[in-house]
Amino acid sequence: MSKESSLLTARQQEVLSLCAAYPNNTTAHLANIMNVSNSTVRNLLSSAYLKLDVNNRAAAIAAAQQQGLITPPPAIHLKQDTRPRQSGLLRRG
Questions:
Q1: Where would a tag sit more exposed on the chain, N or C end, judged by fewer CB atoms within 10 A?
Q2: Nearest Cα residue to 20 out of 52, 51, 50, 64
């Protein structure tokens, strides 16, 4: 398969980006976000799988990210506690 034929459409990129950003969402929820039917989401994903030569969402997301077709979801930065730690003993005064 040539590089040209493996490029995803804008809608395929959109659905894979949503899958990457919301990995636990169902097809129905993704369809609701995109304002399309469940079958449209399934068709977009299926055609993306064929173009990327993969068999599932996780593999499609990884392949699309590796090829630069979608960007990885932003990393979650947890605020670190920078306060000094105190001993486990409480002093009663």
A1: C
A2: 64
Length of the chain: 93
Give the other-Cβ count within 10 Å of 68's Cβ: 7
CB-count exposure of residue 15 (10 Å: 0-12, 13-18, 19+): buried
Q: d(Cα 41, Cα 30) in Å, to the nearest integer?
A: 7
pTM over 0.90: no
User: What Å distances lie between residue 22 and 19, 46, 47, 64, 72, CA to CA?
Assistant: 5, 18, 20, 16, 11
71-84 residues labelled b (16+ CB within 10 A) or e (exposed) = eeeeeeeeeeeeee
Tell me if 20 sits within 8 A of 65, measured CB to CB.
yes
Is residue 42 predicted with pLDDT exceeding 50?
A: yes
Distance, CA of 44 to CA of 35 (rounded, Å): 13
